[in-house]
Amino acid sequence: MSELAHDHATDIRLVVVDHQGQRRALTAVAGWRAMEVIRDWGVGIKAECGGACACAGCHVYVDPDWVDRLPAPSEEEIERLDEALAVEPNSRLSCQILMTPALDGLSLTLAPGSEPG
Ligand code: FES
User: What is the whole-number distance in angstroms between the Cα of residue 47 and the centre of ligand 1?
Assistant: First the structure.
């Protein structure tokens, strides 16, 4: 069966472990924030500030294989993470992770405190 209508070579995959421990593979779009991909695929994430780096409700743990492949966090992100629950060395705010083809296969786990509602 042909899949010519859709060029999978351009897909960026984002793997997310949700608050129930379920692993989900999402298709991301270059230029979107990881938080936006997670939110728009209907995976529950608090993200109250909508990506303004103001709420820490998009806190995730980055898979160890990926930690060093992400751009370093800004001062603003580090300050905001200080206010998050259960911060670990691999903690990041998913609204500050810009999806690019280089991040194809990025794996994140939603952290405590980022549950919606
Ligand atoms: S969505 Fe609020 S800090 Fe990321």
Answer: 5
**Is the distance from CB of 82 to CB of 25 less than 8 angstroms?**
no
Q: How confident is the model over 44-95, as pLDDT tens digits? A: 999 999 999 999 999 999 999 999 999 999 999 999 999 999 999 999 999 9
67-101 burial, b for 16+ CB within 10 Å, e for fewer?
eeebeebeeebeebbeebeebeebbbbbbbbebee
Say if ligand 1 is within 6 A of residue 33 CB: no
Homologous superfamily of 8-110 in CATH? Beta-grasp domain (3.10.20.30)
Residue to mutate (ligand 1; options 39, 40, 45, 49; most atoms within 8 A of CB): 49
CB 37 within 8 A of CB 59: no
25-52: pLDDT as tens digits: 999 999 999 999 999 999 999 999 999 9
Residue spans of the domains in the chain: they are: 8-110
